[in-house]
Amino acid sequence: MQQAVDIPEIVEMINHYLTKEEFLNCTSLTKDMRTTLSYVLYKNLSIANASDEFVARLKNYPAHIQKLTLFLDASLPQGEYDECHRRMLSILSLRGLTALRVFRFKINHSGSGVEHEVARPKELSESVLPALERLIAEHSRAPTLPATLTLPTIQTLNLLSLPDSILLSLPTSFWSTSLACASLRTIELTNVVVEEAQYVLFLHLCSKLHSISLTNVTLTMTQEDVEGVEDDPGDAAKMEDILQYGRHDVAAKVVDDPTKGVAEVAIHLGDAESSDRIRKRALTISSTQEQTATIGRTRKRALTVDSTQEHAARIERDRKHARTEDDSEETAEIEHSKDAAEMEDDSEGFTGSHADSKGKARVEDDRRDAENNYSEGSARARDDLDEATRTESAAMDAVEVQVDLTRPPRVLHSPKHLSLSEVFMMPHANIVSQGGPPHAHRAALGHSVSKALFVRRCPSLESLTCRNNDKSDDTQFFALLAQDPWTLTRLESLTIESDRSEDEQVAKVLQRMRRITSFKASATLIGRLSIQALLVRGCDSIEVLRLRNCEGVTSEMTLNLLEWCPNLRVFSADRFKVQDIPLDREWLCRNLREFDVFIERDIHQDTDRDQEGDSLETQDRIMQRVAYSRLGTLTKLRRLSIITKGSRASELTGIGAAATRGLDVRLDAGLEHLTGLSELCEFVYANEGETVTLGSDELKWMAERWPWMKTG
Questions:
Q1: Membrane-spanning residues where (predicted)?
Q2: Domain boundaries in the chain?
Q3: 3-state secondary structure of 683
Q4: How many Cα atoms sit within 13 Å of 449 on the Cβ side?
Q5: Closest CA to 562 of 218, 103, 547
Q6: Could you say which of 125, 503, 509, 585 would form a disulfide bridge with 527 (CB–CB 3.0 to 4.6 Å)?
Q7: Nearest 5°: phi and psi at 453?
Q8: How far apart are CA 656 and CA 676, in angstroms?
Q9: pTM attached to this predicted model
């Protein structure tokens, strides 16, 4: 019989294993089994092998366990995997739990190799389970399994799956209404498949939610999530009118195609006021099934209400006309449409043309009662839900999600920081033309509409990050984002990494921002218009400015930013030429802490003398000293990078390394002008892997001025 392993040894093995493989930075594991428990689920050591008594003892053990880590072997058979889920839900009822992490990964059990750099430690064996059972048994109380899943004290929830190709699909019961997460503040999902409706409902129960991070998450939707409402014929052509969002109601017609099974759905977009009204109604959640059903009917009917005066007048004319008609089907339909838009009652089959005066009085009383009940329920629920939807930080990375334009994900209504990385959003149904196949430009426009409205409905947003997506058309996205009415009144930080972000559209967004403190652009098409918008809107407020691989940003534009932005603290750009430095203008950015720009010397000139008679060598030396003197005025610099030459310089100029030079790191070239940089901690004057030989005088000078500094 194999000797049992002591508990301290088990914890040490797990800690060593995680540290060695750097497995998801599990720093919460400690040697104190009273506060932290790691439960390893291998093929032959899984929770499915544990007895019900063991699970019950584990549930009742800890009043002391605060952090629980579950490792789930992805290679388990389906039956055993389902049993693991059932047992896991029982374990999650630990009353003292404050942090839960569930890891799913794949292990090579044959011992012949390692898959995805995850190896099974030889020391971990089946003897671990009896050892854990003994530990739990010593502190167990009466073995009782919970009827429902509750997480009363948990604050951090991490659900992750490795490798990326294996998605952790959570059962519906995990997100059921029996969840009680009153203390949950942080949720992180990685490589997870989630049903959107259950996920949103789960988030509504988390009244203290502070941060959400989604990485490679697939949000699935059921057919019931797609709500069909009637629309007017010919509305397919109105899709382009979305560019005037906030001014019109737009319906995107989806034509029924029996061969593809496309449903007939209309997506209604109201103006800001009606959208807010619909959102408040949609966010109302009741504690009873009757209230929930009533609110659901109200929300569906509210989506059919047109907020424009023209449509309201048309309804009024139809109502008057209906009174003059006999018991016709048209009268019944018009009256029923009016009642559905204005009333909340369960008498959907009632028509005003067939009701006597007493019946009308009863309907009016019912309508007033329904409105009063709804108002009271809304007032009670709104305070709780507003708190639940104030998520300050939300990150979506590699997410493909279908968005209901009339019902955005509520948890993202008021984040302060939003990051969209490789996010592709589309409406519930494919947008197709009337009687024809889908069109690519309409699909791209549908993505831009969904993504823009998703962001526009974040009124508290302070920072926005958008990274490239091959499927997206970011030009349309930024055009929609900048439309009236401007909703992002608090936005002051913008990060763009997209080769489809055009200068004109990005400039429109920058012009809308009341204050700009940070702007980062990488591999974009920004140029003159965006730089002008930065100087107009952000010259006095911008602190962080990073412009990388932006071909439209010229040497003169880069220098203008240094000359007109006095509060800059971090500045990073591709390059500027020493020949373009104005001799009559100083740099105002005296508070700069980080400077990272390739300072280029143009050597494509005649070898003869210039018009003034000075040799090119003398002129080059003068301009180098001018550049060093400008750098010397930045006395608060802590990091200085003036990459001299090499592969990066070749990429920036496109003329080869032999044709470009950076500043010479020599005293006679002006290096002594940096004497005043007393806070400098890092000086980068060469590319990685490149060797630059410094003279003895320069080395001695640097050692005396910056003995603590890192150079290279």
A1: none
A2: 7-204, 270-388, 593-712
A3: strand
A4: 30
A5: 547
A6: 503
A7: -65, -35
A8: 34
A9: 0.47
